[in-house]
Amino acid sequence: MNSPADTTAVTDFDHHSATFAERPFEALAELRDTSPVAWSTAHGGFWVITDHEHVVDGLADYATFSSTSGPAIPANPFGTRHIPVAFDPPTHGLYRKVLNEWYSKAEITRREPEIKAMVEQIVAGLAARRSWDFVADLANVSPGAVTLGILGWDPARRLELLDVMTVSMRNQANPDPDVQEQNAQRNVWFREQILGEAEDRRAHPRDDLMTVVATQPVVGGAQLTDEELCDCVVLLLLAGFHTTSGAFTALLAHLQRHPEDRLRLDQDRDLIPDAIEEIIRIYSPATAHARRVTTDTDFGGVRMKEGDWTLFVNMSANHDPDAFPEPEKVELGRNRAKSVAFGWGVHRCLGLHLARLILRLEVEAVFDLLPGYEIDLDRAELSGRMGQGYFYDSMPAHLPGKA
Questions:
Q1: DSSP state letters, 213-242
Q2: Domain boundaries defined on the chain
Q3: Quick one: which of 86, 95, 89, 46 has its CA closest to 68?
Q4: What are the residues facing 170 on neighbouring strands?
Q5: Which of 38, 72, 324, 367 has its C-alpha lying 20 to 30 A from 192's C-alpha?
Q6: Cα 27 to Cα 39: distance, rounded to the nearest angstrom
Q7: CB distance 362 to 138 below 8 Å
Q8: What is the dihedral of CA 71, 73, 76, 82, to 10 degrees?
Q9: Between β-strands 37-40 and 10-11, what pairing exists: parallel, antiparallel or unpaired?
Q10: Which helix (H) or strand (E) holds 257?
Q11: Is the distance from CB of 112 to CB of 360 less than 8 angstroms?
Q12: Of 293, 290, 315, which Cα lies nearest the Cα of 4?
């Protein structure tokens, strides 16, 4: 990895560290205010970009900042070539076109009744128990169940898959060789499950996305190889299981602290989508996106070299006061055209329509089926790892009369 020039601002910023997780927004504000484009010595060295202007410019310029080496620093434990994210145009569009049909706004709207019924069934179960954890019992349940439904996998496998993903992602930045070997073994197992599903679809085709990626021509009239198929489905599972969890619990925490907003949303359900967008802006589903420099370039006042890693921190960009006045304030009706919560440019989140729908249906179901619910914020636990996104590990809650 190239070393920065002597005049470059140098930091030890590490988005996977416990120090960052303790005060992510403050740490990013300090970096954004003093050195919006700086060199971090963590993880072998990379450029960290924190202001909105340069995050947007960098993510839009896929020719200079490529995702073909992987979208994470350090490498994702489930591989670096997640399709279609790991391709830039024009190849990216060929793969994404197939997936777009399954994640388009029209297709997600068509699926709304079945997703709504699934979410309501889950929330009704919480009502019967009268006490629960919003993370383990809802935020980590419905997104995975819906994703498995689209793929056509057995929903009973949700917990098994979630456990494997969670352990490996938590240890993504752990340099211990034994831990990394365990991550590698889980990656092998994960891909074996994907190939097993693919073999089943080739023998018994169904009306599901797994059948499409396992049996149909995708690019240039050819089917995906087994490796390509795994790289594609890994992305769908990782993103599908985790994208909405943090945003949902962050919204619930806000509503617990601001009962006037909770009452307002409950009484006017048309405001829920806007509230979701504002919470997603503040509490990003994904902390940052890594790219690799393809050619020597001047960017943000520094000289970057071919092969340098860059980290575009959308969690920071969405808190930039130059883009969003009073960025920490939850403001319904705010202009969020510049929000990078779901990324920016050609690699903008494939599942954003699904994420928005799941979040809205979860909030509506909580209002309808858990009237008067209370969250014990004193016992709620924020994640000690914010490298992937803003998450809670636990959020205990109960209905009135049940602590």
A1: HHHS--BTTBPPPHHHHHHHHHHHHHHHHH
A2: 10-398
A3: 86
A4: none
A5: 72
A6: 15
A7: yes
A8: 10
A9: parallel
A10: helix 245-257
A11: no
A12: 293
* Dihedral angle, C-alpha 295, 299, 304, 306, nearest 10 °: -10
Contacts of residue 141, defined as CB under 8 A and 6 or more positions apart, other chains included, come to 122, 158
Does residue 390 contact residue 280 with C-beta atoms inside 8 Å?
Answer: no
- Residue-wise pLDDT for 199-257, tens only, equals 999 999 999 999 999 999 988 889 999 999 999 999 999 999 887 888 999 999 999 99
Give the pairing type, strands 131-133 and 381-382: unpaired
Q: How confident is the model at residue 5 (pLDDT cuts 50, 70, 90)?
A: low
Q: Residue 10's beta-bridge partner residues?
A: 39
Q: What is the DSSP letter of 15?
A: T
Element (H, E) at 310: strand 309-312
End-to-end CA distance of the chain: 54
CB 343 within 8 A of CB 92: no
pTM beyond 0.85: the answer is: yes
**Does residue 65 contact residue 84 with C-beta atoms inside 8 Å?**
no
Domain 10-398 in this protein, CATH class: mainly alpha
**Residue 92: enclosing H or E segment and its boundaries?**
helix 91-103
| Half-sphere exposure (Cβ direction) of 196: Cα atoms closer than 13 Å | 8
Whether the Cβ atoms of residue 168 and residue 188 lie closer than 8 Å to each other: no
Whole-number Cα distances in Å, 244 to 99, 111, 139: 19, 17, 7
